[in-house]
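[Automated response] Your request has been received and processed.

Submitted sequence:
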Amino acid sequence: MPTLSFLSYPWLSGSFLLSLLLLLGVLAVLVAMLRGRRMSFQKKLRARRAIEREAKRRKEALVESVRRHLVPALVRQGFVFAPQAIDRNAAERRAADIFPFAPMRRARPDGGVDLVAIQFLTYQRAGFRINACAVPKEGMMTDGGPKTLDECVALGVHDLETHARPWLRPALRAMRVEPLGQWFSVWHWPFRPPTQGDCNKLAKRVAGLLPEVETALREGTLGPHMRRMVLKPLPAEVLERIEKLKPE
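Generated structure:
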């Protein structure tokens, strides 16, 4: 009976076994690395989803507080919600996230219209401001050129915005970045998420600033929390491109 030996089977030689062991070791390391990466990705995904859920919770809490306290204050000043056509496309859904409330309007004694809209930050960030405009009955100049009263109402034109941090405005003006700092947001201690009560306090505080909005609309006088934008027509080539992008 023949005797087995490494010489009879060269592939059983010591160098071959060593190479095989090295290959298995490399494969084991690669599998461990891939598994670690997968677990790391899953952890990051879970952490990101948790952050998104918390951001959504904060945004919804702030919207609810604005609904409870700021919107009724505007209604008491004579504003009513303007009717809107319901459209469920992606652009309208994104606009609904920024403008969860329909624009509000109020008739002016001179035949014009006062417009007010509550605009929230994008990407589920919990912050908002008030946009406003006193549109005369003959219409006004906008970024898109001169518009009639009805066109201004339909477009939601505004040339007034609230500013949350008036004490910062001189420095912001000097740096030519004044729009920064204009959003009202909930302050809270680190590692303590804002509560519904915190959101209610902010909405009530902003409701207390509505006399400044009223004065800006009726008299054109700006309080410390108000800023006015100068509306100028966009360049002709830009307006032409915008017109081409409009649906038929």
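Summary generated for your ticket: Residues 14-46 form one domain. The radius of gyration is 30 Å.
If you did not submit this request, please reply to this message.
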